[in-house]
Amino acid sequence: MAKTSVYKFGGASVKDGSAVRNLAEILRNRLRKNMVIVVSAMGKTTNALESILAKKLSGEDFSLNCTILKEFHQDICQELFPAGHPVFAHLDNLFLQLNNDLEKKLSRDNYDEFYDRIVSYGEVISSRIVAEYLCYQELIILWQDAREVIHTDSDFRFAKIDWEKTRKSCQSSWKPLLANFPILTQGFIGSDPKGRTTTLGREGSDFTAAILATSLDAASVTIWKDVPGVLNADPKLFPNTRKFDELGYREAAEMTYFGASVIHPKTIKPLANAGIPLFVKSFLDPEAPGTKIHEHASVHHVPTIVLKKDQILVSFKVTDFTFIEEKHIHSVYEKLQSLKLRVNMLQLSAISISIVIDTQLFKLDQLISKLRDEFEIRYNEGLELLTILHQQEEEIPSLLEGYEVLLEQASRNTFQVVRRKN
Q1: Are 153 and 159 in contact (CB under 8 A)?
Q2: SS3 content of the chain, % helix, strand, coil (to 5)
Q3: CA-CA distance, 410 to 396, in Å (whole number)?
Q4: Would the pLDDT of 335 be above 70?
Q5: The Aspartate/glutamate/uridylate kinase domain covers which part of the protein (predicted)?
Q6: What is the DSSP-derived secondary structure letter of residue 324?
Q7: How many independent structural domains does the chain possess?
Q8: For 136-146, what is the mean pLDDT?
Q9: For the domain that residue 10 is a member of, what is the CATH number?
Q10: Range of the domain at 366
Q11: What does 293-338 look like in DSSP terms, one character per residue?
């Protein structure tokens, strides 16, 4: 039996009617048995659902937001399907379920669980529309719910995979189906032991593709993006970018660790462990070669720039005139772990610990309240973290022009700076 291949299409590749048509054209000559298609929410749907949650949490009326979101999806369907097509009834039903879920009680205490239940609708709605359209185009495909095979713990918003259980489910439930049909499913979502919806972290659909690929012993994963492959910088932010024809797993993992947005950070490890190659290709130019990430890629030293926005610099200063010791670092990291906060940069001085973290709702307040008895705490919000891998000294000043530097550190292969606009 031929090995499975996994395709993943992100939000930009299903953002409107013409994008969905383009996806169908990409699949027209490629779709076959033993293929899994993973799709993200359409366009900026996840952001829209987060805005609805924010309004609900603050007690504001969010009904207009829900109406706008439903109309966005209805407009796409009207562009793709004839009047009276069953997809419109599916859509009405899913938005009815969403509105029922939004009527339930939300507080800071159950926010993460509530978030997962609500935000998952983006992927479910998107996958249903895409599957219906492919079938309407006579491309036969099975729609399957990813939550039935991707099993996680109950760590809502950052769920950890139960790899053994997930593999068993994929092999017993999906493998027999794939012998006869391709499967279309959702990225980003799973379910906990009680059957509650969980999510794998923002932009986690790439990770879904890697989970399914390793659990199904796939031959390859292809991520379809709006860029020609993996570039050495974001072309929207930096001029004269260069595409990598190939990358080793280690180099790709390093780039994603520092925040390169082209691939989700958790994607590389399971693929590397299983020796499954990852292709990053452009849905705007599907015949172009893109980038291949695999074990035997040649090493390069092209400077690579990664920019993370919405960063917070937090400094913890000891108050009793002692120096920073291991117990202080352990205390800070323990609280960070309990809040599921990841450190993007760390710097120690004799009397303080400085960390850079992503902006997340409530999390800074909670971190400060947990540590205010041990440290004097200061912070700056709205910052950018610039990381340059394989840096060339002469190029750094131009990247800092017009910015105030709040923190800086360098090693042989990495330069990092926390900056804000002057």
Answers
A1: yes
A2: 40, 25, 35
A3: 11
A4: yes
A5: 4-282
A6: P
A7: 2
A8: 97
A9: 3.40.1160.10
A10: 304-421
A11: EETTPPP----EEEEEEEEEEEEEEESSSPPP-HHHHHHHHHHHHH
Determine what percent of the chain is predicted with pLDDT higher than 90.
83
pLDDT surpassing 80 at residue 227: yes
pLDDT at 68 (0 to 100)? 97
φ and ψ of 3, to 5 deg: -75, 150
On the question of pLDDT at 52 being above 70, the answer is yes
**Residue 242 covered by a domain:** no
HSE of 270 in the Cβ direction (CA atoms, 13 Å)? 24
Which of these, 139, 127, 184, 130, lies nearest to 29 by C-alpha position? 139
Pairing of strands 246-248, 414-421: unpaired
The winner for highest mean pLDDT among 97-106, 299-308, 315-324 is 97-106
| Confidence band for 156, pLDDT divided at 50, 70 and 90 | very high
The secondary structure of 334-374 as a DSSP string is HHHHHTTPPPSEEEE-SSEEEEEEE--TTHHHHHHHHHTTT
Q: State the burial class of residue 135 (Cβ atoms within 10 Å of its Cβ: 0-12, 13-18, 19+).
A: middle
Tally the C-alpha atoms within 13 A of residue 371's C-alpha that lie toward its C-beta.
29
3-state secondary structure of 82: coil
363 vs 419: CA distance, rounded Å: 22
For residue 392, the one-letter residue type is Q
Q: Would residue 266 count as lying in a domain?
A: no
Which of 181, 203, 225 corresponds to the end of one domain?
225
Query: How many whole angstroms separate alpha carbon 212 and alpha carbon 206?
Result: 10
pTM of structure: 0.90
- Confidence (pLDDT) at 1: 62
Residue 248 within any structural domain of the chain:
no
Q: For residue 144, what are its two tokens?
A: 């399957």
